[in-house]
Design brief:
The protein is mostly helical and 137 residues long. It has six helices and no strands. 6% of the residues are buried.
Length: 137
Amino acid sequence: MVNILASSGGAYDIILLLALMIIIGLFAGRWIEKINIPNITGYLILGIGVGFILVFSNLTGLLDVFTVMTSIALGFISFSIGMELSFKKIARRRNEVIIVTITQALAAFIFTAIGLFIFNLPLHIALVLGAIAIATE
């Protein structure tokens, strides 16, 4: 495993990599958006691609550094989703939103509770963890 932090100027290398990732991510998001796919998809594809490159090139030490970048990227993605959110569209599809929300919550509860019960957890603990799974879904 290559430890990029141990080399002289390692911090500068990491800052350069982060800056390049932000610039490449910006351009990838805009390019993907031009072919009528949401720019969030571009960010995700780029992130997965860079992750594979880092793993296969034995630069796994950088994966620890990119945990901060992951949090920042998730913030950008959440902000981008929030900008595209329209409450008028949601109000028109109120019934669909309610059905999907209830189905998703029930599925998270049922699959978690049954899965944990199958693996010999007591029923009361499986039910509590199933209830927690609804909130973390």
